[in-house]
Amino acid sequence: MKPKYLLGLLVVGAALAYLIFGGLGQNLVYFITPSEYFQQAERYQNRPVRLGGLVKAGSLDYNPKTLELRFVVTDGVKEIPVRSSGATPPALFGENRGVVVEGRFQDGVFVSQNLLVKHSESYQAPKEGWTPEQVRKLIEEAE
């Protein structure tokens, strides 16, 4: 095989490998826990990150008039206060539930632009003939 064809094949292979593996790394969704944040707090300052954990019981404060939401995310070891505004929280958002928030750390508070909640993994379809009340009860039990 001629050297110029071999060189061309190597360039195409390298470009393809970069697109596959480089793009894959950028599209993976990672989040840090409160404990990980406190281990390297300076690393996460002034840059967008995802923070994950549980919404601490008793910490949820939502004002529907101003759409101001405050709560604490915990991993059972460390806690971080979170502030979000401008949107109604998702229906599955609540205390003692998993959440991933996207935003930035500012003055010891995580300011969130987006809330991601984990939904129930169990699903049971309503049976034929069920009343709306039975369907609502099924939904409430799944949450």
Give a description of the structure.
There is one protein chain. The protein has 143 residues and is an alpha+beta fold. The chain folds into two domains: 1-29; 31-117, Nucleic acid-binding proteins (OB fold (Dihydrolipoamide Acetyltransferase, E2P), Beta Barrel), CATH 2.40.50. The chain has helices at 3-27, 34-39, 41-44, 132-142; strands spanning 49-55, 61-63, 68-74, 79-85, 98-106, 109-117. A five-stranded mixed barrel has the order 1-3-4-6-5. The longest helix is centred in the first third of the chain and has 25 residues, at 3-27.
TL;DR?
The chain has 143 residues and is α+β, with helices and mostly antiparallel strands.
List keywords for this structure.
2 domains; 143 residues; OB fold (Dihydrolipoamide Acetyltransferase, E2P); flat; single chain; five-stranded mixed barrel
